[in-house]
Amino acid sequence: MPSKPKPLQEIVAENVRRERTSLGISQEEFAARCGYHRTYIGAIERAERNITLSTLEALAAALKLDIKELLVRHD
Amino acid sequence: MPSKPKPLQEIVAENVRRERTSLGISQEEFAARCGYHRTYIGAIERAERNITLSTLEALAAALKLDIKELLVRHD
Questions:
Q1: How many residue pairs from chains A and B have C-beta atoms closer than 8 A?
Q2: Could you give the ipTM of this predicted complex?
Q3: Nearest residue in chain B measured CA to CA from A54
Q4: Which of A51, A67, A71 shows the shortest C-beta gap to B52?
Q5: What is the rounded distance in angstroms from the CA atom of residue B42 to the CA atom of residue A31?
Q6: Which residue intervals define the domain HTH cro/C1-type in the entry (chains A, B) (predicted)?
Q7: What are the residue ranges spanned by the domains of chain B?
Q8: Domain A8-71 architecture
Q9: In Å, what is the CA distance from B11 to each residue of A17, A39, B14, B17, B31?
Q10: How far is B25 from chain A (nearest CA, A)?
Q11: Which residue on chain A is closest to B57 by alpha carbon?
Q12: How far apart are the first and last CA of chain A?
């Protein structure tokens, strides 16, 4: 049975958290690299923020990823 | 010489306009399909709006595209 479509916000949240932890950096360190506050990164990783294209660009740049990789579903 | 990185906002703008026109529909018709006002679609297509993930989802759904296709650079 095909899985239910997952909201993009959740896909991005999971990908940011997985990629950040695979870099071995804290939310605090990652927030500093992005130029955001730690609490904003926490909210993004809990899928609580409907982020914009420019935020998506900043996250991907800090993770050294192509932006599209943050939109790929991995489950 | 590698081309200058193009802001995501411009890439999405160009892709939305190209895909919408290839469907042969007006901004008005497309806006109705997305549930947005025509002027908002116009602003998006002129790269004047830093849209959110949920708007990206709505645009891709109305264009019957995978969201990632709206982020692909075509020039």
A1: 42
A2: 0.89
A3: B50
A4: A51
A5: 33
A6: 16-70
A7: 8-71
A8: Orthogonal Bundle (1.10)
A9: 26, 30, 5, 10, 19
A10: 25
A11: A8
A12: 14
